[in-house]
Write a structure and sequence with these properties.
By secondary structure, the protein is an alpha/beta fold. It contains 6 helices and 7 strands, in the order βαβαβαβαβαβαβ. A 7-stranded parallel β-sheet has the order 3-2-1-4-5-6-7, with helices on both faces. Helix 1 packs across helix 6, helix 3 runs parallel beside helix 4 and helix 4 runs parallel beside helix 5. It comes from Streptomyces globisporus.
């Protein structure tokens, strides 16, 4: 049995994705900064007979990410699916004219060095398995930059470029890199972007293995706000 590892595991999309992949027969590795949050998620998943464990890591600390993913593979089995979907900090979202070069250090470390570190940690195991899926989840600013959230717009664009290069470079090895863009807010009441709907979309990206970029819903027209 292989492992679904989620970086940025929380009670919304993280729990829904863990539940969806766990019900499909994968062990679940929950990576986050908070052991207490991990314990809560492990408890919820255990009630549904899903084998999940928490591993403490900080996206801004590459060594902790590598150690957590290696420990997850050792304890649960090789990581076949990696989902990178941590929530950026609020201070990443300054207006572009108020953003300094130093303000980009953490956003770029979070959205570029973080996923690169994770991919490098799981790629040897995927190659040994002969298959794998890399799931990248981003907001709409990854494809349409917003001047009010300059740090995430710049960092998400860089993450997108990295993920798209992986999509091409790994295709011949049966390792599928794919991106899900969520233009609006993730909400339990959303018809398109509830945690459960997004988890189902992510599972479909893993199984269908077609194309690089996918959308949870159409991007609004920047001129009038309509799709």
């Amino acid at each position: 049995m292989t492992t679904f590892a989620i970086v940025g595991a929380g009670p919304g999309l993280g729990l829904a994705a863990a539940r969806r992949f766990g019900k499909a027969g994968h062990h679940v590795a929950l990576l986050s900064r908070s052991p207490q949050h991990q314990d809560n998620l492990v408890y919820e998943l255990a009630r549904e007979d899903i084998d999940a464990r928490g591993f403490t890591a900080d996206v801004l600390d590459p060594a902790s990410l590598t150690a957590a993913l290696q420990e997850a593979a050792e304890k649960l089995g090789p990581v076949e699916i990696l989902q990178f979907s941590p929530v950026p900090r609020g201070d990443f979202m300054k207006p572009v004219l108020d953003t300094t070069a130093a303000d980009l250090d953490d956003p770029l470390a979070f959205s570029v060095k973080g996923p690169l570190t994770c991919v490098n940690a799981v790629l040897p195991g995927m190659r040994e398995l002969g298959r794998g899926t890399l799931l990248f989840v981003n907001g709409g600013s990854a494809v349409r930059p917003k001047a009010g959230v300059a740090g995430t717009s710049i960092a998400f664009a860089a993450e997108s470029a990295y993920a798209q290069m992986l999509h091409t470079a790994l295709a011949d090895e049966n390792i599928h890199a794919t991106q899900l863009i969520v233009p609006g807010a993730i909400s339990p009441d959303s018809a398109t972007s509830s945690p459960e709907k997004l988890a189902e979309l992510l599972y479909g990206l893993h199984t269908d293995r077609k194309g690089f970029r996918h959308y949870a819903e159409p991007m609004p027209d920047p001129q009038d706000g309509t799709p």
